[in-house]
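Posting for a labmate who doesn't have an account.
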Amino acid sequence: MTQTMTQKQATPDFDDLASAKRTLATEVSGLQALSDSLNGAFIKTIETIQAMKDIGRGRLIVAGIGKSGHVARKISATLASTATPSYYIHPGEASHGDLGMITEDDVIIMLSYSGTNAELTDMIGYSKRFNIPLISMTGNPDSPLAQHSDIALILPKIPEACPNGLAPTTSTTQMMALGDAIAVALLERMGLTAEQFRVWHPGGKLGQKLRKVSDLMVKGDDLPFAFVDTLMSDALITLSSKNLGSVVVVDEQKKLIGIVTDGDLKRHMAPDLLQRKVSEIMSKNPRSIRPDILAAKALDIMVGHGEPPITSLIVADENNKVVGLIRIQELLKAGIA
């Protein structure tokens, strides 16, 4: 028996690639149908959640059973990470005490494709008792869940990708995408910037990419400064002692004038180099960046995109005063690339 099964598995008579493409095509059709079906109920959903956020006390409670429960957890996590306070509650646990976690300032979103799960009953009743807005995400407009909701987001009926039509596939993809649509619409309403987004994502690769120039720049006494009338003999001492590969040329108020790099030294190499003034050697109008800009933007400027690449970038404030220097080595070390 084992040998026969092994032989059959080694020489399958079905096409895995064709199966995968059919699955994806079915789910794509489900997403397109979902997009076409969006109407005033979606707008009312966003307005209801936004009103809760404006008060500043409520949370968006997301609940579901089975596969819908797994999707609900992901939707809640996405909302929380995009500045909409949210957490998941299991409807079964809610019936055994967790209903006390829901307040009258909250909004509830319940996910159930059939809308007939008995486990949802207590949460539905609780929302009605305390006048808590209830939003449903379901494929059955005639279900108890849809009928008792203040807002019903109805998923269009598209076949599941499962050939038996049983395993939740297309329907859960629709729910997941609809949750993303809600989160992004709320995010765009508040105009959340990439810098603000980092508050909810301080760790990991995403957190690194959202670090600012001011987080990584060299500053203070470590900066290599020179004035326009400084002799190159002195500038070279500064360049060597600070070991940053360049000297930033400023006026007495530390406003940016130019920069002397290794490339400038090579271009002006001559017996009298040490006796010449910095103003004769420096490159004028060097590229710079503000300290409050994302460090990823600094890397983008250094790479060039049409201009010669550079290995360090001057950091200057809104008054063109030099406040730092950021190097490509530090950006790469921090995982910005």
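Reply:
Got it, the structure tokens are right above this. The first strand starts at residue 60 and ends at 64.
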